[in-house]
Amino acid sequence: MSLTIPDLEALQQAHPDWQMELVDGEIVVMGPSDYESDEISIRFAAYLWNWVNPRKLGRVTGSSAGFILPADGGDSPKNRNLRAPDVSFVRAAQLKRTQRDFVELVPDLIVEVKSKTDQIEKLVTKIQMFLRLGTEVGILIDPDRLTLTVYQLHQEPVVLTDGNTLILPQMLPGWELAISELWPPVFE
After folding, report:
1. Which pLDDT score, from 0 to 100, does residue 15 have?
2. Which CATH number goes with the domain that contains 63?
3. Cβ atoms of 20 and 29 closer than 8 Å
4. Is residue 7 part of a domain?
5. Nearest to 115, CA basis, from 84, 77, 141
């Protein structure tokens, strides 16, 4: 049985505390992230939002913002996916006014942060799907390896570690993020 976005919306009304995605006609219930992964996600979003907001460049959202994606590979429009990356950036020109619903667009930038129970291959597959649909940059942050990997369509992934700086000049001219800033501090 292949489920649709209206099916997902009905399930969400019945279970408002569940976070769900629709992937290839199947409902995927998302469990909570581990504390460190969520902190890294929030840190990335905060650094990004602090650059984007005063310049009115667009919108930054977290893991609860759902995107209704165009059909991937010619599937019927009713079988579209609804996905929610850990962090997303949408340029202002794409979404001039926020919506009180899922948005039907592909974000310009997505970030996935590997949680303790995530499998890297599944996260890379999710990022690659977004890239095929029009996302310009996908980022995978792996707290276990202390790496940030930048993915772009038809390009080799670029792995950054402590001592490196993330820049996205084509999307966010002037923005820089030291990779070492992503890792939660230790308070002693």
Report:
1. 77
2. 3.90.1570.10
3. yes
4. no
5. 141
Q: Looking at the domain assignment, is residue 26 inside a domain?
A: no
- SS3 label, residue 57: coil
In 10 A of CB 48, how many CB atoms? 23
CA pair distance 138, 157, nearest whole angstrom: 10
Q: Is 110 part of a structural domain of the chain?
A: yes
Residue 29: exposure state from Cβ atoms within 10 A (0-12, 13-18, ≥19): exposed
Residue 176 within a domain: yes
Residue of higher predicted confidence among 32 and 101: 101
Per-residue pLDDT tens digits for 72-99:
665 555 568 888 999 999 999 999 999 8
Number of domains in the chain: 1
Q: Whole-angstrom Cα distance, residue 143 to residue 133?
A: 27
pTM of the full predicted structure? 0.89
